[in-house]
Request: fold
Amino acid sequence: MTKIDATSYSITVRYGNFDGEICFEATVKELPDLAEYADSWHEAYELALDAIETTAAIFAEQGRVMPQPAPNVDDYSGRVTLRVPRTLHRSLARMAEEEGISLNQLMVSALAAFRGFCAGMTESDDEWRNVFDAGASGRTSVPVNNVVSISRRKTYGTQAAANW
Reply:
């Protein structure tokens, strides 16, 4: 049997509430039924690596084919064609003109800002939870379990930063 490189598989580790337990969950894209849970990110990742190797050994014993790691696709061109309502197009074009930048620059800035906003949020079963919540330390005034509207994002981000 050929040894597999478990690190070449697509492993995702996330922190959250899983069946009432607050912990880290490691999942593997190529093995959708595999999930490992641990108290630390590192431990969950290591458990996932071990589970991939164990699964490969079991599949080999059973004569089954182990799914191959998903290919790493790094060939994004950076070009996206987007259709928007005319009113939104007009509004964005006017805003870009007022700022003295191109429509493309405005949209890239807006998407980058939103991506940063989303990076501060994690998805739970049915709600969004702010990962910047300080919990019991009380070091932030960002509301918990609420999606903050984009128009309020800057205000909350400033308040949270001021409290750190």
The helical segments are 41-62, 86-99, 103-119, 150-163. The longest strand covers residues 11-18. Residues 124-164 have pLDDT under 50 and may be disordered.
